[in-house]
Amino acid sequence: MIHGHSFPAVLAGALMTVTAAGCSPANEDAAGQAAERPAAAEATPVQEATPSPDTTGAAVWSHLQRVDYAANWDLWPGTGEYYEGQQPHGMLLTTYVNDVAAAGLASDAGRLPAGAIIVKENYKPDSTLVAVTTMYKVEGYNPDANDWFWVKHLPDGSVDGDGAAQGRVQSCIGCHGRQAANDYLFTGELN
């Protein structure tokens, strides 16, 4: 699903746009002759056209805003918005996955691939956003914890704890470590 539309519907819309663009006068040279068009580039999903962030809270937040994760990424499989949560994340949660994480979850690989990003919005019972917690898989970042980079952002984008809640966050690793056999994930069996 892309923006609530099925892939065939999105593809059909894209083909109509490309077809219409190919017939426009802008494709003619100054003499009115059809200009030669460059070869079409291979289609790339919107979210993956943006380079992956480095391992800082600021870079991850900037990446999430640039790709507009809430509008463009899928929800965690089997969940909707504002599902019941628990501490330390919040009483209501909404969890998003990028296409790398979604493909990994669907593959039964036992471990998500590098580039996987999981974003969990943490809400109070009245639906007030209190934090955005993110797990980002970076090859070689922290092999002892399956290469996860952890970060907890406040709603304004600042890193919680005066910047301490980013990187190899021991409270995140300690809690999620109980699920080390499931790639540090509490939901969805990867094995």
TL;DR?
The protein is of the alpha+beta class and 191 residues long. It is built from six helices and seven strands, in the order ααααβββαββββα.
List keywords for this structure.
single chain; 191 residues; alpha+beta; 7-stranded antiparallel β-sheet; 7 strands; globular; disordered N terminus
What features would you describe in this structure?
Strand 2 (83-84) and strand 3 (92-97) form a beta hairpin. Strands 1, 2, 3, 4, 5, 6 and 7 form a seven-stranded antiparallel beta sheet that branches. This protein is α+β, with helices and mostly antiparallel strands and 191 residues long. It has helices spanning 7-22, 46-49, 57-67, 69-72, 99-107, 170-176, and strands at residues 74-75, 83-84, 92-97, 117-123, 129-137, 148-153, 166-167.
Secondary structure layout plus pairing:
Elements: H1 7-22, H2 46-49, H3 57-67, H4 69-72, E1 74-75, E2 83-84, E3 92-97, H5 99-107, E4 117-123, E5 129-137, E6 148-153, E7 166-167, H6 170-176
Antiparallel strand pairs: 1-3, 2-3, 3-4, 4-5, 5-6, 6-7
Q: Between the first and last Cα atoms, what is the distance in angstroms? A: 25 Å
Number of helices: 6
**Which runs of at least 5 residues are low in confidence (pLDDT < 50)?**
1-47
Estimate the global geometry from the Cα principal axes: globular
Strand content range:
15-25%
- Strand pairing plus helix content: what structural class? alpha+beta
Counted beta strands: 7
Give me the Rg, rounded: 20 Å
Q: Biggest β-sheet: count, sense, barrel?
A: 7 strands, antiparallel
The average pLDDT score comes to 79
Query: Into which percent range does the helicity of residues fall?
Result: 25-40%
